[in-house]
Amino acid sequence: MASGTGTVPSYQTALEIGRQVESFVRNVVIPYETDTRFDHHGYPTEELVQELKQRARDAGVLSPHIRSDGTHLTQRETAIVLARTGLSPLGSVACNTSAPDEGNMYLLGKMGTPMIKERFLEPLRAGRARSAFFMTEPDNGCGSDPSLMKTTCRRDGDDWVVNGRKAFITGMVGAKIGIIMAKSADPETDGGACMFIVDLPSDAIRVEHVPNTLDSQLPGGHAMVSIENLRVPADQMLGEPGEAFRYAQVRLSPARLSHCMRWLGACRRANEIAVDYANRRVAFGKTIIDHEGVGFMLADNLIDLKQCELMIDWCADVLDTGSLGMMESSMTKVAVSEMLMKVADRCVQVMGGMGVSGDTVVEQIFREIRCFRIYDGPTEVHKWSLAKRIKRQWREAQA
Questions:
Q1: Residue ranges of the chain that CATH labels 2.40.110.10
Q2: CATH superfamily placement of domain 245-398
Q3: DSSP of 45-73
Q4: Are 96 and 56 in contact (CB under 8 A)?
Q5: What is the distance between the terminal CA atoms of the chain, rounded to a whole angstrom?
Q6: Where is the Acyl-CoA oxidase/dehydrogenase middle domain (predicted)?
Q7: pLDDT tens for residues 149-189?
């Protein structure tokens, strides 16, 4: 297994890890979908999260995408593993491959000092702590446009002092580790942003509100947060002052791709359930899969799921060359999120009333995929960015 050998696994080894993960999710995790330990928002409680992680730990599939030496599988190998954790909305939570922790672990592995890796990364990797990434802001602050960041940081002796508000901070409630982005007020940084890693909870960071949202997969919700005079030691800054936007790119492309991997697994599961339903449900004298309207929807699902898989593999190959892959990850995020939305919608349609009920996980997967089209950059923002690149490339070709 990746978490036990410390050696670079081959593609075949990654397939074996994927098989072990899939067996664990199908046989151990899926029965927990009917557990009652979910809060009033629908999020899994910390008690349930820790129980699931212990089951994964016992099965040897906790953090299966990370080797024992702390390095990650290749992106192509990670795709094999994360798609299997996605077969249940609780699968990535159990296996410690869910957002934002998976992306935060990747970032800390790339950017963290030895002290940061020991103090912050190791508890994350071991599943003893959850984390949150503080970037998005309310009140016309930072979102798809990072230049609008209003949260500030200023140097004060050996510390930095952070003030501001953040919005939709996933996993905040119950998190023990936070990564915070803030715009520097120091002249030498030329208005650049800084990135800090902090212990949570903190008296200087207050949860204002946890809204109800369509999705309900991740523990801790999506909190609105205020930060007031948070003091952070200078050695808890990631990288250099003023360079955080550049460092964020290290996290963004793999994180977008990881979402695609996990939700591909979820939609494969939804499609399995819809196919089973269509082969059992009888209407007008035959099973509904034999009616063209239903059979063709399931055929379209098969085609779209394969296209998603190929897009993910293509983008993973680009990232594995060492490229940041910003254009490729944008294209993949758009294509996969839009195709998976169609897949999830068809599954609901095939199943009719059962598809919109809580009696199967299909209804939840539909809700989760709808949210996927927004986070880590809405479809429209990625297309706008791609259009800018197309225009720039055209101008360069004319010069």
A1: 132-239
A2: Butyryl-CoA Dehydrogenase, subunit A, domain 3 (1.20.140.10)
A3: PHHHHHHHHHHHHHHT-SSTTB-TTSPBP
A4: yes
A5: 52
A6: 132-211
A7: 999 999 999 999 999 999 999 999 999 999 999 999 887 78
